[in-house]
C-alpha cells in the first residue's frame, strides 16, 4: 500500500485536508462566494447581527428564503443595546448562483451571514479576503524558511569542519532568542508609511528569518548520517560534484521529514501574523487579516454585545491550525517506514 493510500485511509487526516481545501478555495474565490467587497460599508448598517433568514411569507407560503432590509436604530445608553429597524414591507428573495456570486438578494434587503462590523462592512467578505493573507503567509513563509534551513543544514552536515562550526553557531544564536519577542522587535522598527503589500512581504521575511534555524540543525544531523551511505560513496567515486551529491542524492532522502515538518510549521506562520496584526504591527486596516480583525477582542463591549465579530476569526484560526496538525500527523504516520505494508 502506498503512502498516499495510507494517508487517505486516515479519517482525521482526510477531514483536515478537506477542511483546508475548502478554506483555500473559499479565500481564492472570495469575490464569487460573497457579493460584498471587504471595504464596502452599508448605510446605517453598522454592527448588524447575522441576518435572519425567513422561509415563509406573511401568508405562510414557503418562499425559498428571504430577508428584510435591516438598519440600526437608537442605542440604549444604559445597556449599549442597539435597536434594529426591520422593514417587513420589502421582502428580498435570496438567490443561489445569481449575478456572478454564490448568493445574492433581489431587493433592498442584504444577506449578511456573519453580520457587519463597526463600519457596516460585511464580516464574511472581510474574513474571506483577510484569509488570503493569513492562509498564504504560512505557505510562502514556510517555503522560504525551509529552503534556507534545508540548504544551510545540508551544507553544514556534508562539509563539516569550520563551515559546520560557523553555521551551527549562527543557528544557536538565532535559536537562543525568543522568537515572539524578536518578531515584535523587528516589526516595531518598520517604517510607518509602508503599504500593506510591503508589510506583507516584510512580515514573511521576518518570520522566515527566525524560523529556519531549528530545521537546519535537524537536517544537519540527517545529512551527516546519510553521507556515509554506499550510494553517496558511489556518487563520489564516479566524480559527481559536491553540489550535485547534496541536491540530488542527500537532500531528497530528507524529503519525508521536510514535508511533515512543513505541514506542522505552516500554522505557526499564520499565528505569528495574527499576533503581529493583533498588536498593530502587522497588516493595517482597512485591509483585513484575521489578526487585525481579532484586535476587536480588546474592546470589552464588542465581546459582550457583538460577539460575532470576535468568534468568527478566532474560530477560523482554530480550525486552520487544527486541520494542519491533523494533516501533518497523518503524513507522519503515512511516511513512517515502520508502518509500510505491501
Summarize the structure in short:
Helices cover 59% and strands 10% of the residues.
Cα separation of the termini: 5 Å
The major beta sheet can be summarized as: 4 strands, antiparallel
Predict the CATH topology of the largest domain. Answer: MetI-like fold
The percentage of residues in β strands lies in: 5-15%
At CATH's second level, what is the architecture of the largest domain? Answer: Orthogonal Bundle
CATH class of the largest domain: Mainly Alpha
| Total individual domains | 2
N to C succession of SSEs: HHHEEEEEEHHHHHHHHHH
Shape: elongated
Question: Low-confidence parts, pLDDT < 50 over ≥5 residues?
Answer: none
Give the class from helix and strand content and strand pairing: alpha+beta
Task: Give the strand order, joined by hyphens, for the main sheet.
Answer: 1-2-5-6
Helix content: 55-70%
Q: Specify the CATH homologous superfamily of the largest domain.
A: MetI-like
Query: What's the total number of strands?
Result: 6
Description:
This protein has a four-stranded antiparallel sheet. A two-stranded antiparallel sheet has the order 3-4. With 342 residues, the protein is of the alpha+beta class. The protein has helices at residues 3-8, 11-28, 30-33, 123-159, 161-176, 179-188, 196-226, 230-237, 242-250, 255-278, 290-294, 300-305, 308-335; strands at 54-56, 62-67, 70-75, 82-86, 92-98, 101-106. α6 packs antiparallel against α7 (196-226).
Keywords:
342 residues; alpha+beta; MetI-like fold; two-stranded antiparallel sheet; 13 helices; 59% helix
